[in-house]
Specification:
This protein has 463 residues and is mostly helical. It is built from 19 helices and eight strands.
Length: 463
């Protein structure tokens, strides 16, 4: 091979290695956190006499200029600076000269990146928590309008017992409330400052970690430098929290897809969140809920990816952890847009109350109520009542009716044991009566549903 070809190959390999090693093209997402951390660090160094007041002022002014350049699109990101930390520091030194070279005193890129990334995760945890609060409020608002609207409750996707639609919506309000609480709990558990841990063992410089901690809004400094620079539990937590939240989004998306089909017709989604077929103009496809359901797999992949990266790492810092950020950035953006879109889908959907109630007349949803009546009022053993109820269901099928539509004579003719049964049994088989009879705490009755709505309204006001 000629010398020219060898040089081309070397140059190509060098470029590939630069691209492979650098993180600047994705960790530039952390520019605001990096600058915030650097300003706090410079202020602390000034307080400790490491920097003069003039040096600190120049550094802070220069860092704010870098921030403005980035946000205005006038900052050029290149592979030569490798990562966001070196990009900011290099540009700072270009702007202010020698004082810029003093900024990195008493810190390492190890604790710097841990600080930047943790600040990002904490910021996003608050943002996602606030979005979830809005989503809970939307489900509660829909629930408040449908505390008497009947819908078939299902198990195994088979008709089971009558519910009210508000109650069904509150099931999702509870799910997303738990998601809110997970982000809140993670924020508190991870609100500790890595800054000052340096490479892995602290620093000999006279620093005040409590000062930078306070400036950055952390509760306290982390208490073990080696653990701190290698810890990515906070990143795994936000990925887990997002994955669980997206699982809940996927579940409601699945129901929206089913409910909007011709077979159900329980809801109609706004045209903004559904599309027509390219060749079948009569079709209206639930594309947005399908995408929400599909994106759940994406965030699961990001969680598993980082778990796999971390599982075999020795202490302390390893370059492997450069792979921690892209998945988090991707999952955060996916969750932000997914929560926002779902909120609008739920707000704008049209509920077909008649179709829901008609569906409650399919599948004998009040059969359990008949068995309960026989146990409570006729003093029957449940198993005996169970088999008698099967006879009544068979009679209803024979007559082409739902059990809730049978009159007293038809019920009595179903089984010899029912020949003298009280007419009160007809009321027990009424769909709305059945729904309201489930008045135990947490049950589906309209009264219990209204109580749950009041609870959520108080919770939303408090949070």
């Amino acid at each position: 091979m000629s010398n020219t070809n060898n040089q081309i190959l070397k140059n190509t390999n060098a470029q590939i290695l630069d691209e492979f090693n650098a993180s600047i093209m994705f960790d530039k997402e952390l520019y605001a956190q990096d600058i915030k951390g650097s300003i706090a660090h410079s202020q602390m160094l000034c307080e400790q006499g490491v920097l003069t007041s003039d040096e600190q002022t120049a550094i802070e002014t220069g860092l704010l200029q870098v921030k403005e350049e980035i946000e205005s699109g006038n900052f050029e990101f290149t592979l030569a600076t490798e990562d966001i930390h070196m990009a900011v520091e290099s540009r700072l030194t270009e702007i202010i000269g020698e004082p810029g070279k003093k900024l990195h005193t008493a810190r390492s890129r190890n604790d710097q990146v841990a600080t930047d990334f943790r600040l990002y995760v904490q910021d996003k945890s608050v943002q996602l928590k606030n979005q979830l609060k809005q989503l809970v409020a939307t489900f509660v608002d829909v629930a408040s309008k449908h505390t008497t609207t009947l819908i078939p409750g299902m198990t195994h996707l088979q008709h089971a017992q009558p519910l009210n639609f508000g109650y069904h919506m509150l099931a999702y309000a509870n799910m997303f409330k738990r998601d809110f609480e997970r982000f809140e709990s993670s924020y508190e558990r991870n609100n500790y400052s890595p800054l000052g841990s340096a490479a892995l063992a602290g620093t000999p410089h006279n620093i005040d970690r409590f000062s930078t901690c306070e400036k950055l809004g952390f509760s306290s400094p982390t208490n073990h430098a080696m653990d701190t620079v290698s810890d990515r539990d906070f990143a795994l937590e936000i990925l887990f929290n997002i994955s669980t939240c997206m699982m809940h989004i996927s579940r409601i998306s699945e129901e929206l897809i089913l409910w909007s089909s011709y077979e159900f017709q329980f809801v109609r989604m706004s045209d903004e969140y559904a599309t027509t077929s390219s060749i079948m103009p009569q079709k209206k496809n639930p594309d947005v809920p399908e995408l929400l359901r599909g994106k759940t797999g994406r965030v699961y992949g990001n969680l598993i990816s980082l778990l796999t990266v971390m599982k075999g790492l020795p202490l302390a810092y390893n370059k492997d952890t450069q792979e921690d950020k892209e998945g988090v950035f991707d999952s955060v953006k996916t969750a932000e847009i997914s929560i926002s879109i779902l909120n609008e889908v739920i707000k704008t959907m049209i509920v077909n109350t008649d179709k829901m109630e008609d569906a409650c007349k399919i599948g004998h949803l009040t059969a359990t109520d008949l068995a309960d009546f026989l146990v409570q009022k006729q003093n029957m053993a449940f198993r005996t009542a169970y088999y008698i109820t099967k006879d009544v269901v068979a009679k209803a099928n024979e007559l082409g009716k739902d059990i809730s539509e049978l009159n007293i004579d038809e019920i009595r003719s179903a089984n010899e044991e029912l020949k003298d049964v009280s007419e009160e049994i007809v009321m027990y088989l009424d769909l709305r009566n059945s729904m309201n009879s489930r008045n135990s705490y947490g049950g589906t009755s309209s009264i219990q549903t209204e109580n749950q709505i009041k609870y959520f309204e108080q919770w939303l006001e408090k949070n």
